[in-house]
Amino acid sequence: MTAEAPRLVEEMARRFQAGDADGARALMHPAIRVQQPASLPHGGWYEGHDGMAAMGVAFARHWDRTITDPRVFGDGGNAVQVTTQTWTAKATGRSATVDVVELFAVADGAIVEIRVFQQDTRLLLATLADAVAGSQGTTGQGTTTGGGEHR
User: Fold this and answer.
1) Which of 71, 97, 103, 139 has an alpha carbon within 20 to 30 A of 117's alpha carbon?
2) 151 inside domain
3) Contact, 28 vs 53, CB < 8 A?
4) The CATH number of the domain where 31 resides is what?
């Protein structure tokens, strides 16, 4: 087995951190699939480079984010990246820091799938609580009512 997947994931992260989004996208298969937790405003499956861009726009409507301490594990066609991320809600200014685990699949020299798992989506949603209280309803703990979606 080769270390193809970890090498690609590390290079993608390096390019994103350097502000080279086009270079990072070049490492992704044109039909890439990305899954975010359905409980988040940008949750669901996204397909292709256009889907990745749409996911970024949906995320950026709500939060700014810093990513630190990337750790990549894997071999061959699969890799796991663990990062520490601080999300700051644009509407409230509140921040939350969580670990994020991403599962990567690689085929034919390109990243073909990313599945993202944030450590505590309830904590992340609580940063938005004041911004969505009028439209969805929240408790003082940042949990939502009405199905748990913030849209």
Assistant:
1) 139
2) no
3) no
4) 3.10.450.50
Would you state the structure tokens that stand for residue 130, as one six-digit string?
A: 């004041």
Q: Rounded CA gap, 87 and 75, in Å?
A: 30
Among the listed residues 100, 107, 116, the one whose alpha carbon sits nearest the alpha carbon of residue 27: 107
Domain that holds residue 81: 4-132
Contacts of 95 (CB under 8 A, 6+ apart): 86, 87, 88, 89, 127
Percent of the chain at pLDDT > 90 equals 81
Task: State the DSSP H helix or E strand holding residue 98, giving kind and residue range, or none if neither.
Answer: strand 95-107
Q: Please report, as a single letter, which amino acid is at residue 107.
A: A
- pLDDT range class, residue 136, cuts 50, 70, 90: very low
The pTM of the full predicted model, rounded to 2 decimals, is 0.83
- Per the structure, the count of domains in the chain is 1
61 falls within a domain = yes
